[in-house]
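pasting for ref
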Amino acid sequence: MLFDPLKIQDYHDRVRDCIEAGKPGFAQGYLFDVLVSYETASPGGPFLFPVGFCIPIRPTGVLEELILDVARGEATASPYTFRRSRIERMIDERRTHPMPIRKLRRQADMLTAFYMAPDSTGHRMIF
């Protein structure tokens, strides 16, 4: 039996069950080889990221990486999980970066194709 006194694995399992059931507002993926669960309407904060203090990244950076991973097919999310305004801001930031960095432009194109096209898979994941 797994030693899990904080019931972290139970929470990840519950989030996974919600995603599989199509319940709105949940996402999950691996960032930095750590399982991260996101809950849009969580009263205790949107993330369960147990080793976040060891990783030099801001909480919004974790969310942005999760959004990118969902678009790449490397993470999963249920409908109505991410705000349209956040996706639009991510696209604008990547397109208007002062240096012509190809990686950022490719990310902007990927986000646009996955989330913003009305007939795309990701369009149902935003609200």
